[in-house]
């Protein structure tokens, strides 16, 4: 009886209580049909548990013991997705820098960064400036460059 999952035990206990007897008081007053259902449910659960154990043992024989938890796999998957998204953002930034700086004259190219991006650097990195101007360009502005 210890092999039964707690949910199954709770469900069977509730059936006993509905039948007018209480869990742990012995077989007196228990419906015979209910006892048969209990035994059948217990046998089914134990056979399913044995089949699951056999499948696990076969898996370990075929592929070796599992050495990683599912949570670790999920963490690795999320980290890989984050790296791919970061690489895509970096590629967009590099593309934007290439398009922006390729059309510049040498005089513009060698100006200090804060003069190119405007309003002084204030500790901003080139990456932040690229993100800002890519967003502005996506909103159909002139990409942050002054005309005339």
Write the layout of secondary structure elements.
Elements: H1 6-18, H2 32-63, H3 70-102, H4 106-109, H5 113-117, H6 126-138
Description:
The protein has 148 residues and is mainly α. It folds into 2 domains: 6-63; 76-138, no CATH class. The chain has helices spanning 6-18, 32-63, 70-102, 106-109, 113-117, 126-138. The longest helix is centred in the middle third of the chain and has 33 residues, at 70-102. It is elongated, with a radius of gyration of 34 Å. It starts with 5 loop residues before the first helix and ends in a 10-residue tail after the last helix.
Return the structural class: mainly alpha
The overall pLDDT, averaged over residues, is: 68
Number of DSSP helical runs: 6
Task: Give me the Rg, rounded.
Answer: 34 Å
Low-confidence stretches: none
Characterize the overall form: elongated
Strand content: under 5%
> Termini, distance in Å?
86 Å
Number of domains: 2
Largest sheet report: none
Number of strands: 0
Q: What sequence of helices (H) and strands (E) makes up the elements?
A: HHHHHH
| Residue share in helix | 55-70%
Oligomer: single chain
What can be said about this structure in brief?
This protein has 148 residues and is mostly helical.
């Amino acid at each position: 009886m210890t092999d039964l999952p707690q949910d199954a035990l709770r469900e069977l206990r509730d059936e006993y209580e509905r039948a007018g007897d209480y869990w742990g008081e012995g077989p007196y007053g228990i419906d015979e049909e209910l006892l048969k259902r209990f035994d059948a449910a217990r046998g089914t659960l134990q056979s399913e548990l044995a089949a699951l154990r056999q499948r696990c043992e076969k898996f370990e024989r075929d592929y070796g013991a599992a050495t990683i938890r599912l949570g670790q796999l999920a963490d690795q998957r999320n980290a890989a997705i984050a790296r791919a998204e970061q690489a895509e953002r970096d590629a967009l930034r590099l593309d934007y820098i290439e398009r922006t700086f390729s059309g510049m004259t040498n005089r513009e190219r060698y100006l200090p960064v804060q003069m190119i991006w405007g309003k002084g650097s204030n500790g901003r990195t080139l990456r932040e400036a690229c993100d800002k101007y890519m967003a502005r360009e996506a909103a159909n502005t002139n990409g942050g460059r002054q005309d005339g």
